[in-house]
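User: Study the shape:
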Amino acid sequence: MSLALEARQFLRSTHNGLLSTLSSKFSGYPFGSVAPFVLDHNCQPIILISTIAEHTKNIIANPKVSLLVFEAGDDLQANARLTLIGEAQMIDKSDADLRARYLRYLPQATSYFDMHDFNFYRINITQVRYIAGFGKMSWMDAREIIDTTSSELAAQESGIIEHMNVDHVESMLAYCQHYHGIAAQGAQMLGMDSDGFDVNATLKDQSTQIIRFNFDQPISDATSARMALVAMSKAARHAHE
């Protein structure tokens, strides 16, 4: 696996980061804030922020930002992390598909959409710094991370997810067990992209965990998604026969 693909898969597996903007109040100083995000189908982060927030004021004055994405753990410096450098751009909050995708991952943000001062911003990535571990790191151009192949899949995603969540919950439970060794009690698909999909699994203690599944080969539409999911179901079934 190339380091660029590893970086993109790592980015797809997480939804929280540290957003750094350039302070408009204290010129020349960076300003850090926590930033939950959801990726669009081009693999660029979408954040939902208020106009009265300090980071939004900073972005309006200067859109250049960075977003640090990292794994939790006892030794943060030993774990993978990814820094995205780019420019934040306000986009249409009324985009129904994007809103639905955002709220599947971050349902706690539902009330924010009713507030006029919250808006979507997309971070248009220009450069990436990925550290996979000791001695394994690189700068990358955004073109190595951005996904330009999934426009058709983006339009089909909601239908795929509805179908899976209504008719194929048992398959997703089997995926959790076979591919991650997790005996989930419930499963709901949250999102699908060209590289894989995310499932919100309900565990035995009734807590939930978002689990990432990567495809062996990229997909581009509902037909190729179905073929990949059927192959995964067969692998899971044969492993337990």
